From TrEMBL:
Bilayer-spanning residue ranges: 36-55, 85-101, 107-130, 137-156, 176-200, 221-242, 254-287, 299-320
PANTHER family with a match to the protein in the record: ABC TRANSPORTER PERMEASE PROTEIN YPHD-RELATED-RELATED
Record region (Disordered): 1-20
Keywords: Membrane, Transmembrane, Transmembrane helix
Designated name of the protein: ABC transporter permease
Length: 346
């Protein structure tokens, strides 16, 4: 009579909620690239300022603030490995909401708060869908892009709507720029905390992509919800500056993606530097200003420079991944021991 085998001891260690923190080489690679970006920003600013009016008036500052906030939004979604392709459309929706409320004599602060809540609501819904279904965030946010654009078009009836305020002064433009810098750099510093990366980076984890895990839901809510809120802030800032909202104002996804990737935020998710998004945004805005002063066609400055930044940024992502400490793979799933008395079948 065959005896049942002795139970096999199994060690059950639950998988970590997200990717383990990278080794110190990661931040050094980012700092090295950010130093190069800073030099490029200073050189570009010097050339453009010497040949034009880079720092005169409010336009360059507001361009940097609003475009930078949108880039920060996309960068957050990349860090959490939940790329939000709807950030541009959500910025338009927030601006349209603000404009319609202002048109109906709602106070500016209240209109701005409501517009931000609308943007946050869209992001939270997208995060819930992506987190609960484990669907790729880019696919979910693509649907959100269509929803946000449709609602914005309906709110504005396809036309431009005046907010009743004129262009803001230089002081407010610089204040918005400082808000952008504080959010972007502060977020980069916060991401250096291993616990933050582990809590919000679950969507980069190397396991079954369709398996539900609470860490994926947390990362999706933070990435899609937080990026939508920042996109809404960009849309509101733009509308308060130009005094008008239209179905296309603020939809600058290509710039946002280009600045985030060029700034060193990894296309693979999980990694990001400290001030890279700020430097890359400034570089693109200053270069764009110089090209406009040189009468370069707008289709070049709006599309081709952003596309080039995206392609270069993908290469930067790959270089940083190759020179940084690698994330350790998740452990294989534990195998349960056979029940007592179990006899192998022959």
């Amino acid at each position: 009579m065959s005896q049942p085998p002795a139970p096999v001891a199994a060690s059950f260690a639950p998988p970590p909620p997200g990717p383990p923190p990278a080794r110190s080489g990661g931040i050094l690679a980012h700092l090295g690239w950010e130093t190069i970006l800073l030099v490029l920003v200073l050189l570009t600013a010097a050339v453009v300022a010497a040949t034009g009016t880079l720092f005169r008036g409010t336009t360059p500052w507001f361009n940097l603030a609003t475009a930078g906030l949108l880039a920060s939004a996309f960068a957050l979604s990349l860090r959490t490995a939940t790329p939000n392709l709807a950030v541009g459309a959500i910025a338009v929706l927030a601006g349209a909401t603000y404009a319609k409320l202002a048109e109906n004599d709602v106070a500016g602060v209240l209109a701005g708060i409501v517009a931000l809540l609308v943007a946050l609501l869209v992001g939270v819904v997208l995060g819930l869908i992506a987190g609960l279904t484990s669907a790729p965030a880019w696919a979910v946010s693509l649907g959100g892009l269509g929803v946000a654009q449709g609602i914005a078009f309906g709110l504005l009836d396809g036309q431009a709507v005046q907010t009743g305020s004129g262009p803001a002064g230089t002081g407010r433009a610089i204040l918005w720029t400082l808000v952008f810098v504080a959010i972007s750099v502060g977020g980069g510093v916060l991401w250096l905390v291993p616990g933050v990366r582990a809590a919000l980076g679950g969507n980069r984890a190397q396991d079954d992509p369709v398996r539900f895990r609470a860490a994926k839901l947390t990362g999706a809510l933070a990435g899609l919800g937080g990026s939508s809120l920042l996109a809404g802030l960009s849309g509101v800032a733009l509308v308060t500056y130009i005094g008008v909202a239209s179905p296309a104002s603020g939809d600058n996804l290509l710039f946002a993606a280009g600045a985030a990737l060029l700034g060193g935020v990894s296309a693979f998710g999980g990694r990001g530097g400290i001030a890279g998004t700020v430097f890359a945004s400034a570089l693109l805005v200053f270069a764009d200003q110089g090209l406009i002063q040189a009468d370069v066609p707008r289709w070049v400055t709006f599309y081709l420079t952003a596309a080039l930044a995206i392609l270069v940024g993908v290469g930067v992502s790959r270089l940083i991944e190759a020179t940084s400490g690698r994330y350790a793979p998740l452990p294989p799933p534990a195998v349960a021991p056979p029940p007592p008395g179990w006899v192998p079948q022959r």
